Amino acid sequence: MNDKTETLMTIVQNAGSFPLDDAIRAPHADAAAVKRAMRSMAGGVSVITAGRGDERTGATVTSATALSMDPPTMIVNINKSSSTWPVISRYGHFCVNILAEDHQDVANRFAGIGGVKGTARYEGARWTTLVSGAPVLSEALAAIDCEVEEIIERHSHAIILGRALATISGAGQSLIYANGAYRSFSLD
Fold first, then answer.
1. What is d(CA 136, CA 153) in angstroms, rounded to the nearest whole number?
2. Least confident among 6-10, 19-23, 58-62, 119-123
3. Structural domain total, the chain
4. Measured between alpha carbons, how far is 93 from 60 in angstroms, rounded to an integer?
5. Which of 17, 104, 137, 179 has the fewest CB atoms within 10 Å distance of its CB?
6. pLDDT, tens digit (0-9, with 9 covering 90-100), for 140-182
7. Dihedral of the CA atoms 160, 157, 86, 56 (nearest 10)?
8. Beta pairing class for 93-98 and 135-137
9. Over the stretch 59-116, which tens digit does the pLDDT of each residue have?
């Protein structure tokens, strides 16, 4: 028996001692505690937009990220109780609008602060469309226009995979959300 075989046998033997069944049945962590923990991690702020005309809507998120570059694919997580979820599902598109530090007002509107809903969230900014037809913030730090590839519904959220169809890039510094507040980040 060689060293690699002995190491593999040790790993297999130790794996059997892990109480996997107990871990699967373990109680869930407190949702408020997990939320507090996640707020300590800084995240880039994006607005996910979808729909056309009077059916335009969107949400402020820190959960947008690239899944793959081959092919270019984005992943976003949207609460199924939000007004954005059925519009993304119906239209089969969304845009990840990456916000600059001077877009805090846009982030607040799409977060529903002040009770702003639906197309009223689009007021006060310039919008256009690219390939999919999803609304694109003209002054975004960057925007990634996507066509829905797959939707995975889990618990309270839909995990949405989108094939990137087009992008725009602007200039400025990223808007960041950490510890319950907006911040900016600069490499300068």
1. 25
2. 6-10
3. 1
4. 16
5. 17
6. 999 999 999 999 999 999 999 999 999 999 999 999 999 999 9
7. -80
8. unpaired
9. 999 999 999 999 999 999 999 999 999 999 999 999 999 999 999 999 999 999 999 9
The CATH number of the domain where 72 resides is what? Answer: 2.30.110.10
- Say if residues 99 and 47 touch (Cβ distance below 8 Å): yes
Domain that includes residue 55, residue range: 43-185
Q: Which has the closest alpha carbon to 78: 61, 92, 66?
A: 61
Q: Is residue 53 part of a domain?
A: yes
What is the Cα–Cα distance from 88 to 180, expressed in whole angstroms?
27
The token pair that represents 125 in the structure block? 């900014």
CA atoms within 13 A on the CB side of 142: 11
Residue 2 lies in a domain: no
User: Mapping DSSP to helix (H, G, I), strand (E, B) and coil, where does residue 49 land?
Assistant: strand
- Higher-confidence residue of 104 and 37: namely 104
